[in-house]
Amino acid sequence: MSRIRVAVAGASGRMGREVVKMVLGDPELELVAAVSRTSDPTVDAGRFVGMDPCGIHMSNDLEMALVEGKPDVLVDFTAPHSAVLHTALALRHKVRPVMGTTGFTPEDIENLDKQCRELGIGGIIAPNFSIGAILMMKFAAQAAKYMPHLEIIEYHGDQKLDAPSGTAVKTAELISQTRQELRQGNPNEEETIEGSRGGLYNGFRIHSVRLPGVFAQQEVIFGAFGQTLKIRHDSYDRAGYMPGVNVAVKKVMDITGMVYGFEHFID
Q: Which CATH class is domain 4-125+238-265?
C-alpha cells in the first residue's frame, strides 16, 4: 500500500512544525513539501524541525510545491486571510485540503464543498483538531438540552488574531443545534462598559480572554436553580493536536465533499 503524500503549509510556524514532525514520524505518510513564506530553500525540513534530514527542502511557493511534490493532501496551519486562497489552490491541483486555519464563511464552505464534489475528492475545515476539545464540544451540546442557560469563556495568548476563537464559534454552533434560542439574563440589563457582557450568540454570551502566558483553554458554564456545571478543556502543548491531524489526513482520503468540523470524524 502506497504512503499518503503530504504537503504542509505554514511549516515554519509553531503548529506547522509539529505537523512536519508528525508526518515524518508516521510510516504511512510521506512528506513531499514544507512551505512557508519566510523559509530558506536551502534548509532541509527534517533538520528545520530538529529531526534527521529527510531530503525535502523548505519552500516559499505553495503552488510550485503542489506542482512539483504532487501531494495527496495539503495540511494548512497558516492565517485566516490565506485560508480560502490556499484551499482553492489545493483544489485547483486536485489536492485534498486539511485546514486548521479559521476564516471561512458559511458561503465559502458551501462553495468549497461543491468544488470538492465536482472533483470527487474530500476536504476538511476544522477549528480544532484536539480530540479532547471535540469531546468538550459534544458534551456541552448534550448538556445544553437539559441546562439551556450557559456562557462560553475561551482563553488564548495575546497575539491571537481572531476573537472569539474558531473553537468557541464551533462550540456555539453545536450547542445551538440542540438548544432553542433563549435570551438569557435580565431583559433590562445594561452594559455600563461596552462589551463587558461578551458577544451575543443565539441568546447566550461568548467571552474571549487574551493574555500573555496563556496557551488555549475553553470552558462552557451552565447554570440552573441551585447548581452549575462547568465543562472545560485545557491544551498545554501543540503536539496534543497531532493525533487528530493524523486521523484527518488519513480519513480525508476516503470521503467526498468538504467536511466542516473534526467532530464528524469522532464517533
A: alpha beta
Is 240 annotated among the ligand-binding residues?
no
78 carries a ligand binding annotation: no
Domain ranges of the chain: 4-125+238-265, 131-235
Starting from the edge strand earliest in sequence, which strands make up the sheet with 150-156, in order? Answer: 199-201, 204-210, 150-156, 216-224, 227-235
Express each pLDDT in 186-195 by its tens digit: 889 999 999 9
Q: Which of 93, 160, 250, 251 is catalytic?
A: 160
Q: What is the pTM of this model?
A: 0.82
Catalytic residue of the set 156, 170, 207, 233: 156
Mind listing the pLDDT tens digit for each residue in 38-76?
778 889 999 999 999 999 999 999 999 999 999 999 999
129 is in an annotated binding site: yes
CB 93 within 8 A of CB 115: no
Would you call 160 a catalytic residue per the annotation?
yes
126 is in an annotated binding site: yes
CATH number of 131-235: 3.40.50.300, 3.40.50.10160, 3.30.70.920, 3.30.360.10? 3.30.360.10
Which cell numbers in the block locate residue 204? 447566550
